[in-house]
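Narrative of accomplishments. A recurring question from our advisory board has been how the design workflow behaves on a single, concrete structure rather than in aggregate. To address it, we present the structure tokens for one chain from the evaluation set, followed by the sequence designed for it. No filtering or post-editing was applied between the two.
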């Protein structure tokens, strides 16, 4: 699998992804440190990447656009040390199937992981 790491997450997650046989790029390293969320979503869709972020706007954008992809791994619940984030990413990779990751929003906090399949259904 391929991943796109957003600015709020540690570039050290690339090491975890690589150790599991995945590819990761950080927005900063590819010159997208000031890219909009919409630009990152489009890149992730074009390159079949899963977005890893702590930005709550991504689920909202995906819901409003009725997107089926990209998948998002969303770190919530406060600040994480690099080590905590790496350990949580390992938990995600060990517990969540690749099929779920590419087509879901995976919300990760220090106590649990929740999966919501895309597209999101919004009731008004």
């Amino acid at each position: 699998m391929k991943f796109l790491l957003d600015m709020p997450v540690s570039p050290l997650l690339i090491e975890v992804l690589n150790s599991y046989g995945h590819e990761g790029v950080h927005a900063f390293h590819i010159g997208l440190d000031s890219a909009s969320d919409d630009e990152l979503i489009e890149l992730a869709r074009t390159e079949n990447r899963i977005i890893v972020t702590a930005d709550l706007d991504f689920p909202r954008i995906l819901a409003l656009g009725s997107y089926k992809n990209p998948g998002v791994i969303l770190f919530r619940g406060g600040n994480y040390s690099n080590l905590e984030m790496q350990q949580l990413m390992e938990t995600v990779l060990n517990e969540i199937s690749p099929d779920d990751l590419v087509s879901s929003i995976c919300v990760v906090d220090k106590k649990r992981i929740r999966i919501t399949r895309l597209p999101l259904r919004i009731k008004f």
